[in-house]
């Protein structure tokens, strides 16, 4: 009997080690797939990982594994670098910049401008309905745009609603409407777009339990956020889309992007209470800037630069993040991309410096964006 017991105990230990190794290798493959995936295969909207994938504190994210969701008044120890779950975003941002954006500036893009066929109106051809309202900018955006040199604001700005509410035809035949939605405020006098809501056709189709490899067959030709923004911005600016300077996202809902920004708040300010006055600005030389550039909410900026580099000209992106929430409303995490033309200065203060230890006490010392 003792012999059998030892045999089964050894067998159980081997089985446990095998399952553990299989789990770890699968997690590594998932991360590497995200890193290795070429930009042309990634949907460039803000909903690849949405709040429907929200996880409890310490739970499992389907790609990034285990990490804690940081809440508004939770105080965490200061950290010098991004935690492991976000390392792949640093690599992804670096990849986009080096292999996508920079070659496009030099006229050597591997990704041609999308072709939506011969339709007179590609929005209508892809089943989109658009309508425009005029609404005031929130106070936090007013504060941000006041910082722009030489810019003035009107009381109301156009807010464009795009609903993919009509059936359409693509290269795979007749398709049902996806019910995707994109809402954004357009501020031509400030050369700015503020994205308010982005629920992509790919995400809506995936909710129908369509296998991932078949999702692209059920989306319209014009489906990515950067394409719709560029097309509608061109109309709002009377065919002068090169004027675009600022791309902003209000109230980020994407769990990966939001958790990344909250971690940066803790690392750089020791709290998630980071209003506009304490905003943080990064360029693409920092790990944080690269991670934000590679995040789901930074991908649309990549594609705007990649596809339209010859119109926009060479730009040096900087990103400013802040939290427009409060104790009553909770988090309202926002980002603004300043697409700085060559030879121009940034609009939102100095780039954040690397934290330095305080003399005799240790711990990081940060420099405010000011």
Q: How many helix segments?
A: 10
Shape call:
globular
Q: What string gives the helices and strands in order?
A: HEEHHEHEEEEEHHEHEHHHEEEE
The low-confidence parts are 23-80, 360-370
Kindly provide the radius of gyration, computed on alpha-carbon positions and rounded to a whole number of angstroms: 22 Å
Tell me, rounded to a whole number, the average pLDDT: 76
Please, could you describe this protein's structure?
With 370 residues, the protein is an alpha+beta fold. The protein has helices spanning 2-36, 87-105, 122-125, 139-146, 201-206, 225-236, 255-269, 287-294, 299-307, 309-312, and strands at residues 60-61, 65-66, 128-136, 156-164, 168-170, 173-175, 181-187, 192-199, 246-249, 280-283, 315-323, 333-341, 356-357, 364-365. The strands form four sheets. It has an eight-stranded mixed sheet with strand order 3-4-7-8-9-12-11-10. It has a two-stranded antiparallel ribbon with strand order 1-2. A two-stranded antiparallel sheet has the order 5-6. The longest helix is centred in the first third of the chain and has 35 residues, at 2-36.
């Amino acid at each position: 009997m003792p012999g059998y017991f030892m045999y089964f105990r050894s067998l159980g230990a081997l089985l446990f080690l095998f399952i553990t190794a299989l789990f770890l290798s699968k997690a590594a493959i998932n991360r590497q797939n995200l890193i290795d995936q070429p930009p042309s295969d990634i949907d460039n909207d803000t909903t690849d990982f949405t709040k429907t994938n929200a996880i409890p504190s310490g739970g499992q994210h389907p790609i990034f594994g285990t990490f804690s969701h940081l809440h508004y008044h939770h105080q965490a120890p200061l950290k010098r670098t991004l935690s492991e779950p976000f390392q792949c975003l640093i690599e992804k941002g670096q990849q986009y910049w080096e292999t996508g954006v920079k070659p496009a500036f030099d006229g050597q893009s591997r990704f041609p401008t999308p072709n939506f066929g011969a339709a007179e109106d590609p929005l209508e051809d892809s089943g989109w309905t658009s309508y425009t309202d005029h609404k005031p900018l929130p106070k936090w955006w007013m504060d941000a745009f006041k910082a722009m040199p030489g810019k003035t604001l009107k009381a109301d700005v156009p807010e464009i609603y795009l609903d993919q509410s009509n059936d359409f035809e693509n290269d795979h035949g007749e398709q049902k409407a996806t019910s995707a939605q994109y809402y954004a405020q357009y501020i031509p006098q400030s050369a700015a777009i503020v994205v308010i809501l982005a629920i992509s056709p790919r995400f809506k189709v995936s909710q129908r339990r369509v296998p991932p490899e078949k999702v692209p067959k059920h989306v319209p030709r014009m489906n990515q956020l950067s394409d719709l923004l560029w097309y509608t911005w061109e109309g709002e600016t009377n065919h002068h889309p090169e004027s675009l300077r600022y791309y902003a996202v209000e109230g980020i809902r994407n769990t990966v992007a939001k958790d990344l920004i909250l971690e940066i708040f803790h690392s750089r300010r020791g709290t998630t209470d980071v209003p506009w006055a304490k905003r943080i600005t990064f360029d693409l030389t920092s790990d944080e800037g690269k991670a934000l550039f590679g995040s789901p909410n930074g991908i649309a900026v990549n594609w705007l630069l990649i596809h339209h580099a010859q119109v926009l000209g060479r730009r040096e992106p900087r990103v400013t993040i802040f939290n427009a929430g409060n104790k009553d409303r909770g988090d309202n995490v926002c980002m603004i991309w300043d697409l700085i033309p060559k030879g121009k200065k940034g609009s939102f203060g100095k780039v954040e410096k690397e934290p330095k230890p305080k003399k005799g006490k240790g711990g990081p010392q940060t420099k405010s964006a000011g």
